[in-house]
Amino acid sequence: MPISANEAFGWYLRSIRERRSLSLDDVEALSRALPDPVKKAYLSRCENGRHKLAFSKMITLCRVYELPPEVLVERMELDLELERLGGPETAGLSYRELVDGAVLAAKEGRYWDGYAYTRASL
């Protein structure tokens, strides 16, 4: 079974935070001055796929991460749509197998499968 939309979106949130070299504590501190601050425990649960990110918290994270809100909204929408459609099993595949699967799926016009393989490879 492919990973859930919550898990995939959580991985994405974590990757954004880590690329900005921010800890969970940093995000909590930076969000304190904003209308809907994000606690580190809440963000941790979201990043681990155990909790869905509330829209108001998404806006806060966009301000902290200096991202336009549509970036996170679009990613969440893609992950939810893939979950609805179903996708290939990606668990246990190597990076090379995931990349090869994405390339083959794209060549065959199976774009959602290609997205699933690409997402898992990241």
Note down, in words, how this protein is organized.
By secondary structure, this protein is an all-alpha fold. The chain has 7 helices and no strands. It has helices at residues 5-19, 24-31, 40-47, 55-65, 69-85, 95-107, 111-121. The radius of gyration is 15 Å and the shape is elongated. It starts with a helix and ends with a helix.
Binned, the helix content reads 55-70%
Return the structural class. Answer: mainly alpha
String of helices and strands: HHHHHHH
What is the CA-based Rg, rounded? 15 Å
- Total beta strand runs: 0
Overall 3D geometry?
elongated
Tell me the β content: under 5%
Low-confidence stretches: none
First-last Cα distance: 18 Å
What's the number of helices?
7
Please outline the major beta sheet: none
The mean pLDDT is: 95
